[in-house]
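Morning F.,

Quick status update on the modeling queue. The single chain you submitted on Monday has been processed. Sequence for confirmation:
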Amino acid sequence: TKWEEEKKEKLTSPRTGPIITIMTKGKSYFWVGLLIGVILTSFTYSYLGRKQLSSPGQKSARVLKMAHGLPVTHPVHEAIMFFAKRLEELSGGQLSIQVYPSGQLGNETKCLEQLQLGTLDLTKTSAGVMGNFVNSMKVFSVPYIFRDEDHYWSVLDGKLGGELLDILAVQDSGALSGFKGVCYYDSGSRNFYTNIQVKKPADLKGLKIRTMKDPVAMDMVQALGGSPTPIPWGELYTALKQGVVDGAENNPPSIVSSRHYEACKFLAMDHHSRIPDIVLMSAKKWDTLSLQEQGWLMDAAKESKELQKKLWKKASDDAMDVMRKNGVTILDVETALFKKASMPAVEKNLHGKIKELYEKIQTVSSGE
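Structure tokens below.
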């Protein structure tokens, strides 16, 4: 009609701007339907995504912080990195560990304090250092508490070893310590290395021997006739070189990594103490883990402990080879003589809970 022609002319007139194309009714329904479909699909995916994230059991990955004071070449660090790898594998990526080695977050004491505060999740420390936080741990410093390496692991891997880890959770006062014992790592046996030959206890008489700042260790050296001299580890190399002290006591890998064999050419394998390392967790963080997550962590730690034993054995053998090649005389001394001479130090430090634990350890048979 004339009216329709006029309307069409207005719609296509240049004065109205862009030309408007009038769709047929069928095409209009198609595009409207397509638009509605896109909107509904987007809404569905968005809803399902939110539902999946909020579903019970669905947790985002958590990263645990672990620190220690040893270099990255140390067998303990290698075992810790394996621990981190296995935890991530066992948990399917739900739990992982970020490791801070070489004292990046402080020495052993500082790391333990951070564990108590909950600002650090995991650390590795010497059982000797733990005695300053939980007095019962001083039992590990008692000379010759372990008859040999087999007895050592029979205790640590057995029921009593588990009980000793549990003791870490509570201070002697009964207050919670803030620690969760996870597992033990090997740190070998400590032996005397000196600048003169020591084959029997009498040879230590009058010698200035560096010890840890540990009353039990100092009592032992004194009982053997030496003069205990606590010196910070970082200052010991110079002290040995300059003759400030005549010797010290430690395990073979530590003697080699510190290059103390350059000053001391005699190593007496008397095995006077076997103080294990302990992997610890913040009790606050442990309590936030589900039972399944706790299981993953403990399984990964157990596997890392077995690996660390092998790594430590190799490191010890390699260290002995290095010392021999550098002119150190290795002396296989009569341990029974040193044990007998150190008994005054043993008896002095056996009291209360420490005495009770010492006696329990003595009842454990090798191979149990």
